[in-house]
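ok here's Nucleotidyltransferase domain-containing protein, seq below lol
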Amino acid sequence: MRPEAPGSHELLVRDHTVYACVMGSRAFGLATEDSDTDRRGVFLAPTALFWRFDKPPTHVEGPRKEQFSWELERFCELALRANPNILECLHSPLVESVDDTGRELLALREAFLSRRVHETFTRYAHGQRRKLDADVRTHGAPRWKHAMHVLRLLISARDLLRTGVLTIDVGAARESLLAVRRGEVPWPEVEARMTRLAREGEEAAARSPLPGEPDRRRVEDFLVRTRRASALQPGPYDEVVQGVVRGRGVGEH
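and the structure came out like this:
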């Protein structure tokens, strides 16, 4: 059997996913009747594919609607940078599938957490707030759903910095956040909440129990061991590797 042909990257998601979860409003506890089901996942591209000129993709959209997956190495890189979407994916309460590699990845969740989250979470929130301000100037009102999620992210960042634990479900904040989504809270009040949460996040960062940097060595050890184990597994990619080894000898043309 030959390996996946170019353009068939969805097979990597189908056959090699190590972790899959639901994200978005359903994971945050903010779903309504019309909410989509956003699926996120991590796949492990077989090591033999990296020996080819055409490397496996770092991410794949699909095959299902609202589905997006990252290759394990790319996922770990982004998590070490404290990417909010990636860290939240690792902590989703709605896990759809996980294998042994995925369980080891989940066991590393704390290794990715550091005080870097203050910069990355708040930087993303501030970027979104600038867009909301532009909406207000242009249209007289913000996109209320986006405003709700900026508040949610600022709450998440503050609580993570305070406790060292990333909690995805908004819990008791659900109704107040949904009121923002429905446009029931005046924009000046929403702005004031954002400003207060940002200030509380900054104060929490100064005395956070989180380490200054993530545990890169521990994560890299996991990635190397996983790649090595994959290289030793027989599979449909052996034909490519064997073809190289058994092909022309050194100096042959």
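fwiw The beta strands are 17-23, 38-43, 59-61, 67-71, 95-98. kinda neat tbh
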